[in-house]
Amino acid sequence: MDGTSKSAGPLSGVVFALGEKAIFKAGDRVRVSTRSPIGHYRVPTYLRGKIGSVEKAIEPAGIDNEEEGYGRNAGSKRHYYRVAFRMSEIWPDYAGSERDGLHIEVFETWLERAER
Amino acid sequence: MTQTEKLVNRLPNDVGGLPADAIQRVDHELEPWEKRCHALADVLDFHKLINTEEKRCGVEALGAEMVAKLSYYERWIVAFANILFHKGILTPTELALKMKEVESRSSEG
Amino acid sequence: MTHQHEGDDHDHDHAHPHAEIGEGRPGYYDIMETAVRELLIEKKLIGADEIRRQIEVLDSRSPALGAKVVARAWTDPAFRARLLANGRAACEELGISFYDDTQLIVIENTDKVHNLIVCTLCSCYPRPVLGLPPDWYKAKPYRARAVVEPRAVLAEFGTIIPDDVEVRVHDSTAMVRYLVLPRRPAGTEHFSEEELAALVTRDTMIGVVPATVDITGAAP
To answer: Mind telling me how many Å the CA of A10 is from chain B's nearest CA?
Structure first.
């Protein structure tokens, strides 16, 4: 132990609890799930099945807002992600600029990994 | 898909992308009861008696007709009443009697 | 308060009294609010003082706060950087508390991106720093159309964005709130922070209009 530090990095051998670590990272292509829940939801219908890119995994993890709507005030935490969509991906007849986009926060349970 | 499926699995507030009119540039000064209602919502959230997401869920649960016909804070206060009933914090009878009493104050001389 | 009704099935997102309210007697929902509040206070679940205080909190929050944040960002590059990195923390530096425990992301308009904020599902809005949202923000037309035809919506506010600039719509549906950092208007290099703040209206921070120098000629 001579006091010099090796390069910083995560220690090996640390196991994360299920759901504790963000599954997606910035740049990942993701698809919004296509289920149609009855009851409370916070993923608008217009986004179901659409493919976008993760801008950022939001830290820290948060309560699932669908459960929060029924009174859960703690627990049930996973990550929300800011996801970027092209307007032309969301709306087939989009009339604005091809550059236009939409950003929205989506809970992890609503995202699936998409191929590029 | 049945005729009624969309009533059930699309929330009345889920309006992104639906056809809609020109934007009416209206704004109004909150009436005193509306401001009290907003303050009540905040205080209920601080206590986690009714958190903000529960409020949203409660407004959605009013259903399409009430969501369309009640104004913004009218939806909130009815939603609060329903949620408080479900939680056993208030009963409909309690609220009805109290409302009767409150109303009678304003008709006294 | 004037507004137009368009047909019988107009949206009642703008509050206007339907029932006759004569001589200042409270309406049905006013009575309901009073009754709910008094019952909760009687049951000691909330305090009357808390409600009174929260009304004061709400009255103290207005677009003037956001304007000061923007003006500070325009004149202090280090503050601007902190604001863009963590909107809530930077606002808290200026003494703006986030009583609703929301996070704030401040998004800058640039020559390449014009940002627009909407909450399609309800009316999420950065209330701690802007106060309460205008009725039109909460009503169906804005919420339905901002995500599908943002340029047409912007045009209704008199804002035309060139095609080579991205219009980026932020639909706030979760725990984050958004504030647009508008571009500083040209010709304001010599303005004081206070004079700059006077140019920053609520609508510039929602993103429906850019900030402009007052056309009647704000004195530098």
So the answer is: 36
Question: Helix B72-86 and helix B32-46: axis angle, to 10°?
Answer: 40
Looking at chain A, the number of H-run helices and the number of E-run strands are: 2, 5
* Total domain count, chain C: 2
pLDDT tens digit sequence for C119-176: 999 999 999 999 999 999 999 999 999 999 999 999 999 999 999 999 999 999 888 9
Question: pLDDT tens digits for C9-32?
Answer: 444 544 444 444 445 799 999 999
Look up C97 and say whether it is catalytic: no
The alpha carbon of residue A3 is apart from the nearest alpha carbon of chain B, in Å, by 48
pLDDT for C21: 47
Annotated catalytic residue, options C60, C97, C122, C192: C122
Active site residue C192: no
What is d(CA A48, CA C211) in angstroms, rounded to the nearest whole number?
35
- Domain parsing of chain B, residue ranges: 32-107
Whole-angstrom CA distances from A32 to A38, A51, A101 are 17, 6, 16
Q: Is residue A21 part of a domain?
A: no
| Full DSSP string of A34-80 | ----SS---S-GGGTT-EEEEEEEEEEEEE-HHHHTTT--S--EEEE
Q: What is the CATH number of the domain that holds A75?
A: 2.30.30.50
- Residue A15 in any domain: the answer is no
Beta carbons of C177 and C124 less than 8 angstroms apart: yes
Distance CA C58, CA B43 (A): 12
Query: Which residues of chain A lie closer than 8 angstroms to C164, CB-CB?
Result: 97, 99
Note down the domain range covering C72. Answer: 61-206
Kindly state whether residue C41 falls inside one of the protein's structural domains.
yes
Asked if the structure places residue C214 within a domain, the reply is no
Mean pLDDT of chain B, nearest integer: 95
Contact present, B41 and B80 (Cβ < 8 Å):
yes
Residue C9 lies in a domain: no
CA separation for the pair C38, C180 (Å, rounded): 39
What's the mean pLDDT when you consider all of chain C?
Answer: 90
Which residues span the domain enclosing A92?
Answer: 29-113
- Chain C residue at shortest CA distance from A80: C174
Instruction: Give the predicted TM-score (pTM) of the model.
Output: 0.91
The burial of B76, by beta-carbon neighbours within 10 Å (0-12 exposed, 13-18 middle, 19 or more buried), is given as buried
Pairwise CB contact (< 8 Å): A105 & C166: no
Q: Is the same domain home to C104 and C128? A: yes
